[in-house]
Amino acid sequence: MRFSWLILLCFLYPIVTHAQSEIAGKVTRKDSKSPVAGASVFLGNSSFGTATASNGTFTLNGVKPGQYTLVVTIMGFEDYTQTVLVGKEPIKLNIELSPKSIILREVEISTTAKADWKRNYEQFKKEFIGTDENAKNCEVINPEVLYFTYHKTQKVLEASADEFLIVENRGLGYRVKFLVRDFRSDHISGIISYSGQRLFQELPGKESQKKKWRSARDYAYYGSAMHFYRSLYKDRLVEEGFEMHHYTRLINPLRPPEEVIQRNQERYYKLRIRDSLIKWNDLEKLSIYHKETIYPMPLFTSEVLRSSGQQGIFGITFPDLLYVIYNKKREETPFREVYRTLTMPNYETTILSFTDKNRPYSFFDMNGILVGGGILNEGTWSKARLSELLPVDYVPTEDVETTLKAELGKKH
Length: 412
Prior knowledge:
By secondary structure, the protein is α+β, with helices and mostly antiparallel strands. Helices cover 22% and strands 34% of the residues. The strands form 4 sheets. Strands 1, 9, 10, 11, 12, 13, 14, 15, 16, 19, 20 and 22 form a 12-stranded mixed sheet that branches. A 4-stranded antiparallel sheet has the order 4-3-6-7, with no helix packed on it. Strands 5-2-8 form a 3-stranded mixed sheet, with no helix packed on it.
């Protein structure tokens, strides 16, 4: 069965505080005002994190300027999030945590339940962590914190965790602590979506190993969504190797919906009716789209970039679909539904669309991270999994030409 996977990253739209440089504060209980010790305090999806002292205080020093989601989490309390825009001056915060209502999950211990959990976990690993070379070097330290629900009829896998899922990524040299929220893998639509916050911590290693990790991180960065959004707001798309094109397409009326195809494939396979199965297999091979057009003139930054009215936040908008090419890397995955003209080189390509057609815009920050959600990625960026993710404060150590040359040397 073929799936053209899409990735939908979900984030809450933030409330921005004043620009600062150091973040300090105190965490207390909302009901009794007593200090909360041992709470994890971190800037979501970054490498900055700490824990509260016995008196509830914390400090995050040396934070790179930019917008971050500050997260406070500890067992027994509701997670706390607040978006901060880091500049030059210190930020002082007083944070109150609300006790969480205790919800007892039903635990099944039958042999069937264990088998189902293992099957769901293997699917989750592939779709959340990835299957690339970096993923092969990823180890999940505490898989037991995951809870799964599989909806057989809808072919939907859901996952969540009450505490950090810890993954050691020895491909990029990070220990990643992830608060998994609302992971959802839909095998009919081919859409994977999830929300949550990550904390990146450097793994120890010899200098030779750290050099390899820096090179691997740079390679993951160049051509990524983070790289694109940073280049967009700096108006450096051409210099950084990106092109944007207006793109249109229509749904192919000859191809039935994916749900109908899968249902009939399963039906005739079970009934052993060969001719009908062949018919539906042939229909499955038809392209989802037709009448596809890539407009040859590249779009200018001014045609898609908008002001948000907030410091450090930028808007992005486009009609129909946005076709993004990164011309410094070749695409190694044969995405069947990513349209190319016969004369187009096989560069990395991503198609961007808005999930809500009545809301054709989104927002991103100066770190190159979407903060408004609502954008669906098809193609190259849809491959991005935990194995390739970088902290939002990441800055490449080498230029792109040096990085690509080093990577080419590894392959040969």
